[in-house]
Specification:
This protein is mostly helical. Helices cover 76% and strands 3% of the residues. It has 2 domains: 1-127; 128-303, no CATH class. It has a two-stranded antiparallel ribbon. A hairpin with an 8-residue loop joins strand 1 (60-64) and strand 2 (73-77). Helix 3 (79-103) packs antiparallel against helix 4 (107-125) and helix 9 (229-235) runs antiparallel to helix 13 (294-301). It is globular and about 55 Å long.
Length: 303
């Protein structure tokens, strides 16, 4: 069985047990246990597969017919995706276990966490613009539900709204990004078509990368686009905050790196990323030193 198939099975197990936990919300102990077992089993299977990819440099794609604009449903895995998947599978399983002991047997929390893990995995294996955007939006909304778990508190509700507004400003940029990429592919939205069309005709690549920097930079917490980050981390339950720091915001970085593989290199882009990284690191350290809330320290350290 190929590593890609195993990753898809792992994602399906995590998502399926999340849905099952949601359906069994009237028996929270059973539902939460199912979600935890699903996260553990999916995590082990997924980790086994991505280690094989990283050690063997394996790359693969599969496509199936899909009755939507832009071509078939395409998923794939390569060393870049595999680099970001191990923290998701390992920390996702650990957070599921911790979340059950931390919050108790709450069926909806366990279900939402598993569905968030599955959405993040789908972002990493998506090779079609529409599938990617659907997975990205699902990840955004599920993270919002987990961040606002204690929605009875005004500060938590405010943090949730800040996160949601910032995330959807980014989604607008991502829609513009994929529409721009599709202008040269004859309507196809799969990543292979993007790479071919934009490699043979590099003009306009700077605009594509600028849109990517905004759209993915918000999720990555790049300096100047990180307004949601300290608020959301402080509001979220501890295990959710840890998962956001270690995995969710790193998917913004993944998106930027993926775009650099689809369009021709632009000389200034690497320098801009390095400059933003240095400024973000210095600013994050300065802000973290002034904090007493551990979650805010973690958030500022993640900038």
């Amino acid at each position: 069985m190929s590593p890609l198939t195993l990753v898809l099975i792992a994602t399906g197990v995590i998502a399926g047990t999340g849905v099952l936990a949601l359906l069994l919300f009237r028996v929270p102990r059973v539902a939460t246990s199912i979600a935890v077992v699903g996260a553990l089993v999916g995590g082990v299977v997924g980790l086994w597969a991505v280690v094989a990819v990283l050690l063997g440099g394996f790359s693969a794609e599969v496509s199936t017919p899909w009755a939507v604009p832009g071509g078939g449903l395409v998923v794939g895995i390569d060393p870049l995706s595999a680099f970001f998947l191990p923290p998701l599978f390992v920390l996702g399983a650990l957070c599921a276990v911790y979340g059950r002991s931390y919050l108790g047997p709450l069926a909806t929390q366990g279900a939402e966490l598993n569905l968030l893990l599955a959405a993040m995995a789908l972002v990493l294996v998506a090779r079609h613009g529409l599938l990617f955007l659907v997975a990205w939006e699902g990840m955004t909304l599920l993270a919002y539900l987990l961040v606002t778990f204690d929605h009875g508190e005004a500060e938590v509700r405010r943090a949730g709204w800040v996160y949601l507004i910032a995330s959807h400003v980014a989604v607008v940029a991502l829609f513009a990004l994929f529409l721009a990429l599709g202008t040269r592919t004859g309507g196809s939205l799969d990543f292979a078509s993007f790479a071919y069309a934009w490699r043979i005709s590099p003009s306009g690549a700077a605009g594509i990368l600028a849109l990517a920097l905004v759209g993915f930079g918000v999720k990555a917490g790049i300096v100047g686009l990180h307004v949601w980050l300290p608020e959301a981390h402080a509001a979220a339950p501890s295990h959710v905050s840890a998962l956001m720091s270690a995995v969710l915001i790193k998917l913004g970085l993944y998106g930027i790196l993926r775009m650099t593989l689809l369009v021709s290199p632009v000389a200034w882009f690497g320098a801009v990323l390095m400059l933003l990284g240095v400024i973000g690191a210095l600013l994050g350290i300065a802000l973290a030193l002034n904090q007493r809330d551990r979650k805010r320290i973690l958030a500022n350290s993640s900038d």
